[in-house]
Structures are given as C-alpha cells and as structure tokens.
Amino acid sequence: MRVACHRRAFRADRTKGTPVDSTLLRHFEAAAEELHFAHAAKRLDVPRASLLLSIRALEDELGYPLFDPNASSTVLTPEGEAFLVDAQRQLKAMAASQRANVAAPGGKAKASKGKGRAPAVKGERKPGKRRQSR
Fold it and tell me: Is 4 in a helix, a strand, or coil?
C-alpha cells in the first residue's frame, strides 16, 4: 500500500521486518485515537511527557512524522493514519499470542507445606525462640 505524501512516497509496510516495542505502539495508538496527548496520557495512566517521548522515539525509529507538527490541533499525517492501522494489527497479534501462551488451568495439585523454616538473618532473633530474661 502506497500513500502519496507531499514530501515523499511512503510504504505503509515499512516496519514489517523490524519489531516495534509494544509500549511505543500502545502509546501511539492511544494518542491517535484520542487526538489529544493529555487525554491519551490520562487513559494510559502515564505522564504526558513520557507519552510525547515515546511518540518521538517511535517517529525517530520509523524515520517519518506521525503527527503534523504545523497543525493547530493534534492531527495525524497520512503516514500516521496508515501506520495506525498497522499498529492496531500488530497489537492485536501480540495480544493473541500472549493469550495462546497462557498455561491451561488444572494439572497436578501441590500440597501446601506451611511456612517452613525461615532463613537466618543476621541481627534478627531466631524464629520460635524467646529472648532469655534475667
């Protein structure tokens, strides 16, 4: 898929060969869906500065801007719109693979062995022993 940009031609599948950090993808997806950095940061429960740093790091890694820096409000560039679709697809694939890697419930039950013996810590009293009084 090619998207014509006023600066250069862009291939939307540019990142297919290189894995992108899932945190960067989640931060970009939230910012792109909200189109407001403060609201996206609140939704992710991260500081706004961290969200902006993540998006700048992603832009540096990809080599093109995802948001229009000259717009009066937060607007995606054509590259950003194309990358949003790809990012959502990658996040869904990551979530599906994480669900597939979860161990099945059940298996052999293990008996609880109680507290056992606590390790000796220098300067601490030994468990179960009272201090001798005079």
Answer: strand
For the entire predicted model, the pTM comes to: 0.63
Residue 111's region, left for phi above 0, alpha for psi from -120 to 50, else beta, is: beta
User: Which segments within the chain are labelled E, that is strand?
Assistant: 2-4, 9-11
Taking only the tens of pLDDT, the chain with its 134 residues reads 444 444 343 444 444 556 688 899 999 999 999 999 999 999 999 999 999 999 999 999 999 999 998 988 889 999 999 999 999 999 999 888 888 877 667 666 666 665 666 566 677 766 665 666 66
Compute the distance between CA of residue 94 and CA of residue 13 in angstroms, rounded to an integer.
Answer: 17
DSSP secondary structure of 91-121:
HHHHHHHHHHTSPPS---------S-PPPP-
Contacts (Cβ under 8 Å, ≥6 apart) of 63: 14
Question: All domains of the chain, ordered by start, with CATH?
Answer: 22-100 (1.10.10.10)
Identify which of 21, 8, 2 has the alpha carbon closest to the alpha carbon of residue 64.
8
- Here the tokens at position 72 are 């009066």
